[in-house]
């Protein structure tokens, strides 16, 4: 069941962005044909953005993450420049995917303002590694959350791994921590996710 507070807060935003799409005649914003209430809302592929679509749909399946993103506070700069704010466009995209009655919506408002590491807009007709895009998205979002504790993506995906080092010939001990947002797990000869994780920590 959907939290009524979230629903109330986000419906006005959805209605305004959809009305904007109609007023500007932005056909790629969404398929206007309504969807069956029992079905999920999809994402339009812009040519080679399946990697992005799969990641965003995975985000949307995480109920707690969606709630945190939609209800997260925006900076003054973000509110004043919503069309070029990645934070704002992500909130709208999540809201549309969760509450819209449309069959599919477009990621174009997001991709058009997302630059790669060289400062150039990402090319929607060129495939990108999904983890590379995830890291790029996290990098962009850092500027919208001056304090990490308010960044919903860091709260949900960042974790620390502590490594302990013990000297065999002396009593010296030391430890170090590294921050991760993903693990590079082996797939070959691994039949379950659990076995892949166990293999990662054994090495």
The outline comes out as: globular
What's the mean pLDDT score? 79
Beta content: 5-15%
Instruction: Let me know the largest β-sheet.
Output: 2 strands, parallel
Number of DSSP E strands? 4
Considering DSSP H and I runs of 4 or more, what fraction of the residues is helical?
A: 40-55%
**Oligomer kind:** single chain
**What is the CA–CA distance across the termini?**
42 Å
Radius of gyration: 20 Å
State the low-pLDDT regions, or none: 20-32
As laid out across the biggest beta sheet, the strand order is 1-2
Count of discrete alpha- or pi-helical segments spanning 4 or more residues: 9
Describe the protein.
The protein starts with a helix and ends with a helix. By secondary structure, the chain is mainly alpha-helical. It contains 9 helices and 4 strands; from the N terminus they run H-E-H-H-H-H-E-H-H-H-E-E-H. Mean pLDDT is 79; it is low at 20-32. It is globular and about 65 Å long. The chain has a two-stranded parallel sheet. A two-stranded antiparallel ribbon has the order 3-4. It has helices at residues 4-23, 50-60, 63-71, 76-80, 86-99, 108-111, 130-141, 152-157, 193-202, and strands at residues 42-43, 104-105, 159-166, 173-180.
């Amino acid at each position: 069941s959907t939290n009524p507070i979230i629903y109330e807060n986000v419906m006005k935003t959805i209605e305004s962005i959809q009305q904007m799409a109609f007023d500007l005649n932005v056909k790629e914003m969404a398929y206007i044909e309504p969807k069956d209430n029992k079905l999920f809302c999809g994402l339009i592929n812009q040519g080679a953005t399946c990697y992005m679509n799969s990641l965003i749909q995975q985000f949307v399946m995480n109920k707690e993450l969606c709630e945190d993103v939609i209800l997260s506070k925006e900076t003054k700069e973000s509110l004043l420049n919503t069309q070029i704010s990645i934070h704002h466009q992500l909130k709208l995209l999540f809201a549309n995917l969760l509450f819209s009655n449309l069959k599919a919506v477009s990621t174009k408002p997001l991709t058009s303002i997302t630059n790669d590491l060289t400062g150039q807009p990402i090319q929607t007709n060129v495939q990108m590694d999904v983890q590379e895009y995830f890291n790029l998205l996290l990098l962009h979002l850092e500027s919208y959350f001056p304090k990490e504790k308010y960044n919903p993506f860091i709260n949900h995906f960042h974790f620390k791994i502590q490594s302990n080092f013990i000297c065999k010939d002396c009593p010296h001990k030391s430890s170090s921590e590294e921050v991760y947002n993903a693990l590079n797990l082996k797939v070959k000869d691994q039949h379950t996710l659990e076995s892949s994780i166990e293999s990662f920590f054994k090495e």
